[in-house]
Specification:
Blueprint: H1 2-11, E1 14-16, H2 18-46, H3 58-66, H4 72-87, H5 92-104, H6 114-125, H7 133-147, H8 150-156, H9 160-172, H10 178-190, H11 194-202, H12 205-213, H13 221-235, H14 238-246, H15 248-258, H16 267-278, H17 281-289, H18 292-302, H19 307-322, H20 365-373, H21 391-396, H22 413-419, H23 423-430, E2 445-447
Antiparallel strand pairs: 1-2
Helix pairs in contact: 3-4, 4-7, 4-20, 6-9, 7-10, 9-10, 10-13, 12-13, 13-16, 15-16, 16-19, 18-19
Pfam families: ARMC9_ARM
Keywords: Cell projection, Cilium biogenesis/degradation
Subcellular location: Cytoplasm, Cytoskeleton, Cilium basal body
Amino acid sequence: MELVETLQQAIVGKTITNEYIDNVCSRLGLARLRESMSNVMESARLGIDDPFTEKFDYAKIKRDVVHISTSPRQKALLLQALRWKLTKAKTDFKREKMLECYINCDLLGCQTDTEQQTKIIKELSTPADTETNYVKEEWARLINTIASLRKGRNYLAPNESLIICMQKAAIAEKSDTSTKQHLLAALQKLSLRRSVQTVMINQNMIKWLVPLLNKTDNLSDYTLEYGVALLMNLCLRTDGRKKCAEIADQAITVLSTLLAHPNHETRPYVNSSLYSILTHKSIRDKAIELNLDNRLRTLIRTETSNSETKGQLEFLLNLLCKGGDQIVEQASDDEQDNDDEDQDVMEADLDLADKLQAVNQELSGDDLILVKYSSQTTTNVHKSYNNNLYASSTHDFKSKTPIDPVLHRPTTPGQLRQSIVAHTVDSLATSLVVGDIFHSQSNGFEQLNGNHTMFAASTSIPVKKSLSARSKSASIT
């Protein structure tokens, strides 16, 4: 209630002091600690290795999702149920525990079970008919869901064969199907990993992406956004820019068109992709030949509603007109992945437009898993996570303010959206579920006067390092 009253007071014109905000934030940190400790104490009290992990027969689950005796519809419903255990988890903690169960049983064969891996690759690679189409789509949705989580990316990323298979399967989809959308989104999330970037660059992903993004009328917003974001992540690498140089004419034309696309969610990735490839002299020369400078000037002149967008366009024009070799501070080709910037983001799109529904008394979701795969015996998934409680939640709310006009480190659309959410309000709102921490009411309100500033929710957090001192005055749209 304190949070609600605080926001109401701010709306009607009362000021909240910095001291009051500091006090709330410190109590929120304490609440996180108390919540984590309560889980540890509960585990100890019950005398159980892991009271939060549901016990299922994962060996049977692994067998049934790929076995020839399981009908395509049964496979699809099982894969859907496994996804729902992650997307519909009541807490981040339970979601993380369930993911650990999938990883520990090597559900996708990404560790040592090469036979399982081979069967999954075959299912993704086989042309889908009406009966098996649901299976391929449910595999794509499950992989996309796992790739949405940091530990899931750690599990999937080393599996080069699966990465290549996913890319080929996405390319094989002739239209913008749900299967293509989720495979592309999963690949984009995995492109946070440098090893995966290397695989996709070597597999000529850029040469497929650029023509794909030229067909915006036939693409969903989801495909367009993740497609451009994937292109950006790959173009941050030197080898990626070299691949773009091979199709410079087409790359410049497509990105130039996307600069004015009505979907504003794509603009940070379009601007950053252009910035990256324009540091390559041959591409810059081609851009001038194609009159990109005039295109930018026109957009700058007509952009009257968004000063930040106008600033980004001016930034690109300045780079284009400089000439010579450009040295920029982007993701180094030999630097390590930054786990601190690798957040867990579960999107509503993971379950959106899923047409698979149980019929004629079929079991689905929790009912399916509980009835067919419940196990009373202890499985081998009782790994201790007391030192990592709520690790994903901590990453989710880490402050990162976009202070550069373009992005210089790999990110995903989900992460970028999360980073520009009102961080203060979001963190305070989340704390409403935590009880017994607001014992003392602090009268932090003061009437607005010339010595105080109205409380305003922070709208963004540092996502990427600045390119130069010059660029720190601009912000990502």
